[in-house]
């Protein structure tokens, strides 16, 4: 795969800091990335038609895309390249030792090269699928407009790639985390609290708000208590799923393997309950949108109907209790729930073995890594113990992620269940990165103090 390394060598990159970046500057740089991405996502593509497809709105939030702007490709190429590289290395297709500096550098170069190829591919797909259409009223040759749009999409993708690199080296966390967190946070806030009407509304700005809470208040004022109550319950369901996701995110299972923590205390080796994180839910969600796209989002198609969010609470508010007594709607909810939960379990199991998180690989890593302070170094003992826990935890992790993702869509949450999960997972990562940044910032002071002693 020297071609990926060659592609990476031609791509612009951000040089790493020559000295330690202070916590204050890390925060400033992180805010700068948010501002620059906001500007990028506010600049429309030249030659673009004003009619933009909104079919992928929820998926675009997940992948940080602002369709019709220079940020149309979003961070999807970076995410996909990282996932593919983990799979290729985990499956042994690429022989890269990421525990060494040379291996890490090669892995990063391959990932950057692959990300650029995904930028090109996604740019082609966005244009050829009709989601981005040129404005033929400009009087410019259509072929020339397509070429200009294609170049703009690639340039926008490269800028996002640089923003991610800059944030990773000079900010608190990666640009991917910052961009997705900002987009979903803003979308969730607007869906819950926005008192304004949609931009296309010809009525008063405040006649029909888009936020759940303002809508509930408006319906209660108008005397439509059933619909007002449904939006209120949907709001409660949104916060309930958020709280439940936070709770699960910090649950850990203690494996009976003695382990020395940073303070030198002997504890049991901890494994996060959500072992495969949000990956299973994202895979299923992306697959659902892809299938619906192939079927052109035809609402008369039974498959498209089944794969659409049931929106139980809102539908009951709009159509009454007769909606839930309809056997077709009940079957729809059950199938949608099973797609995420059962599918999540199998994808989680596959992901564990694909990227080397299975008991055997983890046991080898823990016994060979000198930085892993295990009480025993016998890989057979460690593997045997880990197997009793990782296999069931893998299935449970996929099930719980599928459960939360499907419940969000079934209970009419303000944003998709996957968006809520991703928001919590990234918020946890940013919190951990912030803690590490703070500790790193204090190390020089501690070192000077110790030297004086």
- Mind telling me the CATH class of the largest domain? Mainly Alpha
Distance between the termini: 52 Å
Query: H/E order of the elements?
Result: HHHHHHHHHEEHHHHHHHH
> What is the CATH architecture assignment of the largest domain?
Orthogonal Bundle
Shape: globular
Number of helices: 17
Question: Which oligomeric state applies?
Answer: single chain
**What is the averaged pLDDT score?**
84
Provide the helix percentage: 55-70%
Under CATH, the topology of the largest domain can be stated as: Preprotein translocase SecY subunit
Poorly predicted regions are 439-443, 445-453
Strand order in the largest sheet: 1-2
Taken as a percent bin, the fraction of beta residues is under 5%
Largest sheet: 2 strands, antiparallel
* Count of DSSP strands: 2
Computed CA radius of gyration, to the nearest angstrom: 24 Å
Topology:
Elements: H1 2-10, H2 23-40, H3 57-62, H4 76-90, H5 101-128, H6 142-170, H7 175-193, H8 212-222, H9 225-249, E1 252-260, E2 266-272, H10 279-294, H11 302-307, H12 312-319, H13 322-325, H14 327-354, H15 359-368, H16 379-410, H17 417-452
Antiparallel strand pairs: 1-2
């Amino acid at each position: 795969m020297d071609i990926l390394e060659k592609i990476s060598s031609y791509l612009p990159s951000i040089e790493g800091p020559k000295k330690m970046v202070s916590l204050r500057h890390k925060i400033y740089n992180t805010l700068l990335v948010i501002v620059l991405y906001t500007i990028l996502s506010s600049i429309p593509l030249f030659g673009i038609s004003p009619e933009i497809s909104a079919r992928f709105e929820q998926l675009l939030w997940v992948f940080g895309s602002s369709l019709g702007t220079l940020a149309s490709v979003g961070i999807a190429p970076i995410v996909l390249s990282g996932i593919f590289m983990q799979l290729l290395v985990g499956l042994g297709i690429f022989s890269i030792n990421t525990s060494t500096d040379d291996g890490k550098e090669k892995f990063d170069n391959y990932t950057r090269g692959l990300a650029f190829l995904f930028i090109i591919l996604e740019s082609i797909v966005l244009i050829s699928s009709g989601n981005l259409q040129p404005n033929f009223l400009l009087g410019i040759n259509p072929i020339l407009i397509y070429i200009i749009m294609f170049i703009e999409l690639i340039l926008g993708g490269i800028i996002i790639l640089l923003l991610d690199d800059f944030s990773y080296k000079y900010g608190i966390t990666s640009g991917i985390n910052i961009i997705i967190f900002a987009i979903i946070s803003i979308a969730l806030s607007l869906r819950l609290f926005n008192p304004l009407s949609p931009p296309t509304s010809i009525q008063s700005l405040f006649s029909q708000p888009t936020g759940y809470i303002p809508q509930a208040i408006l319906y209660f004022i108008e005397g439509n208590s059933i619909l007002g109550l449904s939006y209120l319950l949907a709001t409660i369901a949104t916060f309930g799923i958020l709280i439940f996701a936070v709770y699960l995110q910090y649950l850990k299972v203690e494996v009976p393997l003695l382990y020395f923590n940073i303070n030198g205390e002997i504890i049991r080796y901890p494994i996060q309950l959500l072992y495969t994180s949000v990956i299973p839910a994202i895979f299923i969600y992306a697959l659902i949108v892809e299938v619906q796209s192939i079927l052109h989002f035809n609402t008369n198609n039974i498959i498209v109907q089944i794969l659409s969010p049931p929106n139980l609470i809102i539908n009951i508010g709009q159509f009454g209790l007769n909606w839930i007594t309809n056997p077709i709607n009940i079957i729809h909810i059950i199938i949608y729930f099973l797609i995420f939960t059962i599918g999540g379990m199998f994808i989680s199991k596959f992901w564990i073995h694909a990227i080397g998180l299975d008991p055997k690989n983890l046991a080898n890593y823990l016994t060979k890594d000198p930085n892993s302070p295990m009480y025993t170094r016998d890989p057979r003992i460690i593997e045997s113990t880990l197997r009793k826990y990782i296999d069931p935890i893998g299935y449970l992790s996929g099930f719980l992620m599928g459960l939360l993702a499907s419940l969000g869509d079934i209970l009419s949450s303000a944003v998709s269940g996957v968006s809520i999960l991703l928001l919590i997972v990234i918020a946890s990562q940013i919190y951990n990165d912030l803690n590490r940044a703070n500790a790193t910032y204090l190390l020089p002071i501690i070192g000077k103090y110790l030297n004086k002693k």
